[in-house]
TrEMBL record:
GO terms for molecular function: FMN binding; L-lactate dehydrogenase (cytochrome) activity; L-lactate dehydrogenase (NAD+) activity. GO terms for biological process: aerobic respiration. GO terms for cellular component: plasma membrane. CDD domains: alpha_hydroxyacid_oxid_FMN. Residues 29-412 form the FMN hydroxy acid dehydrogenase domain. This is L-lactate dehydrogenase (Cytochrome). Residues 1-11 have a biased composition (Pro residues). It comes from Verminephrobacter eiseniae (strain EF01-2). Its EC number is 1.1.2.3.
Length: 414
């Protein structure tokens, strides 16, 4: 990969990528004027309380890997082709055998119901209507049962963290089965927590503590407050009332810190696979050796992911790691990726470099924080349109025919 320096992300102050005026200086534009993910980010920055916006828009330590996830996509150039029949285009494909309207799923994100009231329910509804999978995090605000109830038991995916309390994990997996989840993502890159400076400085908690700084901030976020007053879902819905000795919030934070299991190993993958019995996806693979172990585990898919730059700062970007991992994994397992996807062009580039599917974290969260369910739908529409149009400009009409030949040699990682 020729890129070694990473400029600030596109949304750094002074960026011209977002075309809306600075959020604090202008009123929020209508949805019809939202034309890119950066526009959604700017509105979310204005509407979501500071600690939750920062929780989403941050990476660990220097945020170098977080920035590289986006910047490395931008360095890859596409080959423009002309005079090719562009009619009858299709972005439809499959992820672990499931039909998807485009090779994009919503990634699991913790505390999503704090970006917007009932955020996970709204995200799941938008994904269902669009025809792509939604993944619910273990650390969600809305519970597994909430999602099943509010989507008419439409299948969704569940993401599990392995914790020391194995009984709790087994019950969680059983609850996901009972709720009609059609795939389980096992996250392997969070045995211990990467440090994000902003979360410590902001005193991140769910719900926010009534400190003076928080109350002043909340006073400028009336929509958010109004939404929160209208929902009973303000804490970790999968955990409170389900895990032993977690009845209130103060014990929950202590429980979380001590419960993520630092001893997680490949033997545990076997245990989870057996208990689950359905499609299993391993999330957080960044190394060719681990990709081979993932193949040996018998999982159905692996996700090349550095947790959106939130865990090991200094790890390569996901898109830089993708080709090596795809080569190591071969055809025995589906290879997906996430990290830094802010446009349909990024999805196309990931697909060209060997990802059968992709996941979006922040692109989803910004849409949700900005406009709720309508914002998520807008984010998906934007990404879909960018994917469709760019594929056509590259001379292809079927996403299933995309490969590295659409990329300019010398500009992409190998
Ligand atoms: C706010 C936030 C919370 C996250 N929470 C989780 C989580 O609970 N479980 C998990 O496996 N990954 C979690 N992730 C990582 C995402 O699933 C995904 O790997 C990452 O967001 C992809 O990068 P992107 O945000 O640049 O698209 C989280 C990411 C963000 C931004």
């Amino acid at each position: 990969m020729p890129i070694t320096r990473h400029p600030p992300p596109a949304h750094a102050p002074g960026s011209t990528i977002g075309h809306l005026p600075h959020p604090r200086r202008a009123s929020v534009p209508p949805l019809s004027k939202i034309t890119c993910i950066e526009d959604l980010r700017l509105v979310a920055a204005r509407r979501v309380p500071r600690m939750f916006y920062d929780y989403a828009d941050s990476g660990s330590y220097t945020e170098g890997t977080y920035r590289a996830n986006e910047a490395d996509f931008q360095a890859i150039k596409l080959r423009q082709r002309v005079a090719v029949n562009m009619e009858g285009r299709s972005t439809r494909t499959t992820m672990v055998g499931q039909d998807v309207a485009m090779p994009v799923a919503i990634a699991p994100t913790g505390l999503t119901g704090m970006q917007h009231a009932d955020g996970e329910i709204l995200g799941a509804k938008a994904a269902k209507a669009f025809g792509i999978p939604f993944t619910l995090s273990t650390m969600s605000i809305c519970s597994i049962e909430d999602i099943a109830e509010h989507t008419g038991r439409h299948p969704f995916w569940f993401q599990v963290y392995v914790m020391r309390d194995r009984d709790f994990i087994e019950r969680l997996i059983d609850r996901a089965k009972a709720a009609n989840c059609s795939a389980l993502q096992l996250t392997l890159d969070l045995q211990i927590l990467g440090q994000r400076h902003k979360d410590i400085k902001n005193g991140l908690s769910a719900p926010p503590r009534p400190s003076l700084a928080n109350l002043i901030d909340l006073a400028t976020k009336p929509r958010w407050c109004w939404g929160m007053l209208g929902t009973p879902r303000r804490s970790f819905g999968n955990i409170v009332g389900h895990a032993k000795d977690v009845g209130d919030l103060s014990s929950l934070s202590a429980w979380t810190a001590e419960q993520f299991d630092p001893r997680l190993h490949w033997g545990d993958v076997e245990w989870i696979k057996k208990r689950w019995g359905g499609k299993l996806i391993l999330k957080g693979i960044m190394d060719a050796e681990d990709a081979r172990l993932a193949v040996n585990s018998g999982a159905d898919a692996l996700i090349v992911s550095n947790h959106g730059g939130r865990q090991l700062d200094g790890a390569p970007s996901s898109i830089a790691a993708l080709p090596g991992i795809a080569a190591a994994a071969g055809k025995a397992i589906e290879v997906w990726m996430d990290g830094g996807i802010r446009s349909g062009q990024d999805v196309l580039k990931a697909r060209a470099l060997g990802a059968q599917g992709t996941l979006i974290g922040r692109s989803f969260l910004y849409g949700l924080g900005a406009f709720g369910q309508a914002g998520v739908t807008r984010a998906l529409e934007i990404i879909h349109k960018e994917l469709d149009i760019t594929m056509a400009f590259c001379g292809l009409t079927d996403i299933n025919r995309v490969d590295a030949s659409i990329l300019l040699p010398g500009t992409y990682p190998t």
